[in-house]
Amino acid sequence: MTTREKGLWTIVIILTVSVAALGGFIMLRGLLKPGDVTKDDGDHTVAEMGQEGISEEQWIAELKKRYGATTLLQMLNRKVVEAEAGRLGIKVTQEDLQQVLKQDSKGYASDRAYFDEMQQQFGLNPDDLRNEAEYRIGLEKIATQGIQVQETEIDEYWKQHPEEFAVGKQIKLAAIYPTQAEEAERLLERVKQGESFDTLLQEHSSHLDGKDKSGQLGWVDEYDPFQPQEIMEAARELSSGDVAGPIAVNDGYAVIFVQDIRLEAPPNEQQIRQQIRRSLALAQAAPLEEVEKSLRDKYGVRILPGKDMPSISL
């Protein structure tokens, strides 16, 4: 996945989390029994600290304030995209889903590792991720409807951008982030003298202040945009078992250890051509946000007045 694609996927994750967050309280509210609500004010206490409580209305108001506009807009977008896909006869195939999920999970040890990370970091299960991928695919197919990409265009793009389809590699990294260059030099020297990097890592982590990010970074893509560029530039030049440092990063330094390296399985020619076709078609299409807005206009979406309704520009 490119840096741009990862950035877009981050936005999608945020949207999905907000939908899940607000959808969660809607579901919970629907499951409340009539007896759960007090007769005095129609409110319900959902949490307590000593004699103080947080009411359901307070909870809902906070969720609406934080996620209401984003969630409502995304729910409306899903409705209009589903309607337009049905009108055009657009189908999202299992092959479409597998290809997109494979791109999304690139840089992880396995599909399972990707799903586990999304569950741990964002609370999204595999069904949530598949549903989000299905929405993205449907929206892209609507946006590129009628756009023709010639085989010669695919050939030319492949010829001009061979690096995008070269067999990449993943690096299993560990790092220590000392604040002083002298300390980094001492750590590097101890490794060169035969000490285990894991031992130094444990020793260093025993007195962290909570802001230190030293530790096992795990498997990362060689061009992972979420790791400091200086670290990845150094790591790409190392072999398995090598250490490097001190590397100047942010307001300190890093000493890194390459635990292992593995090459990614190359995609076949059909997959590459399909990926290029999709990218070239999207490049000619209107931005997806504009497509969503045009569909909302087409299907007459409007926000009905009501208490605490979020302000949304449709």
Features:
disordered N terminus; single chain; 314 residues; 11 helices; 6 strands; alpha+beta; 2 domains; flat; Chitinase A, domain 3; four-stranded antiparallel beta sheet
How does this model look, in words?
The chain is 54% helix and 14% strand. It has 314 residues and is of the alpha+beta class. A hairpin with a 2-residue loop joins strand 5 (243-249) and strand 6. Residues 1-11, 24-41 and 207-212 have low confidence and may be disordered. Residues 168-260 form the PpiC domain. It holds the Pfam family Rotamase_2. The chain crosses the membrane at residues 7-28.
What topology does this entry show?
Blueprint: H1 3-31, E1 45-49, E2 52-55, H2 56-88, H3 94-104, H4 111-122, H5 126-143, H6 151-160, E3 169-176, H7 181-192, H8 197-205, E4 215-221, H9 229-236, E5 243-249, E6 252-263, H10 269-284, H11 288-298
Antiparallel strand pairs: 1-2, 3-4, 3-6, 5-6
Helix pairs in contact: 1-2, 2-5, 2-11, 3-5, 6-10
Keywords: Isomerase, Membrane, Rotamase, Signal, Transmembrane, Transmembrane helix
Protein name: peptidylprolyl isomerase
Catalytic activity: [protein]-peptidylproline (omega=180) = [protein]-peptidylproline (omega=0)
Question: Mind describing the biggest β-sheet?
Answer: 4 strands, antiparallel
Instruction: Give the helix/strand class.
Output: alpha+beta
Helix content: 40-55%
**Stretches where pLDDT falls below 50 for ≥5 residues?**
1-11, 24-41, 207-212
Net shape: flat
What letter string, H or E per element, gives the SSE order?
A: HEEHHHHHEHHEHEEHH
Give the rounded overall mean pLDDT.
78
Number of domains: 2
